[in-house]
Amino acid sequence: MKTFACGDVIPGCGARFSAADEDGIFGQVAGHAAADHGVTGITPELVQAVRDRIVSV
Asked: What Pfam families has UniProt attached to this entry (predicted)?
C-alpha cells in the first residue's frame, strides 16, 4: 500500500491519497491536480516531486 499527501508538494492542501501501487497514486493525483489546483500540464519535475513523497505503508 502506498500513500501520498498533496500538502507535501502544494503547501496548505489537505488531500491525501492511498492506492495499492504508485500508478494508482498518480491516477488519483492527476485528477486532483487538475480539478483542485488548475494543473493541466504535468511536468517531469512535478512527477518527481510526487514520487519522492510517496510513502509505503
From this structure: DUF1059 (PF06348)
pTM above 0.90, yes or no: yes
User: Model confidence over 19-30: pLDDT tens digits?
Assistant: 999 999 999 999
CB burial of 6-42 (b: ≥16 within 10 Å; e: otherwise) equals: beebbeeeeeebebeeeeebbebbeebbeeeeeeeee
Distance between CA atoms of 34 and 29, rounded to whole angstroms? 9
In sequence order, the 6+-apart residues with CB closer than 8 A to the CB of 53 are 4, 5, 8, 9
C-alpha cell at 55: 510513502
- At 46, the amino acid letter reads L
Q: How far apart are CA 42 and CA 2, in angstroms?
A: 20
